[in-house]
Amino acid sequence: MSMWFRSLAVGFAVAGLTAVPAAAQFTFNQIAVTGDLAPGVDDGAEFDFFSGNPTLNAAGDVAFEAFLRRGSGPDAGDVSSGNNRNAIFGPAAGAGTPLSVLAREGQAAPGVDDGAEFSFFGSPALNDAGDVAFSAGLRLEDGSGAGNVDTGNNRTAILGPDAGGGAPLSVLARAGQTAPGVHDGAEFDLFSGTPTLNAAGDVAFLASLRTVAGDVDDSNDTGLFAFVDGVLKLIVREGDLVDVVPADGLAEALTVSAINFDNDVFDGSTGFNDAGTLAFGLAFTNGTSGIFTVTVPEPGAGFVLLAALGGVLRPRRVARPA
Question: Per the confidence metrics, is the pTM higher than 0.70?
């Protein structure tokens, strides 16, 4: 929990909309503070405090994670931890639309078939079209008809637009689901950090994998995935062989030992651009490493991996163990 953000929000509420720092004067545009009615809720809940990092797009929309409390109105409903306190907020219907709750603890998760509901959230990513993507925890629905949701089964998920920009929010990948492109039946286990979202509504993320019938261990239990045009793809996985041409010019197939890919929500940097190109780092079992890019094409087309070697981009081949 980011306690500095909680303190900052309370400070805004006391100081008003305009703060005067020691060195210069700025106008602070108040988005949400403790005690405000949470927009889009139907039980009068108020903001209590804020967690993680807010994110901003070119239209000035903001998306963030918040915790709620029971409102002060006469018809306010019950708000409690483990029930309906945690939520994601962002533009209601695309860029430039009013702030609203987009997902809330206790709400049915879209795109699941077993009645699972939201349990907790990670910080959201936000693109210039007003789409959001985030990781979430799931739990059993209260009542009959709920499926089997537990920590070791299918409790975590990645959510984003289910068919590109402007499409409805849906589960794109879920723990317990067979990961695409794998040869050994490995399943998604956990999802790392905030997913990356480009202007087209494509989503990329790192995920750890677990074994079902195959052999998944520390040497091949992490992969980089992208959801593009409604299709989830494996980009690269630990244990893959990548053809690399080092300074001596002799091509060598190197085994991937680690993947470095992240979305820094706080400073807005991203490894996934609007043309569908991903940038990431790879470390290899021989102790070397490199920076690579890959452009994710339309479904059904092959992709080209480019390696940054000596300032020159060269196509590289990726192979996976049989």
Answer: yes
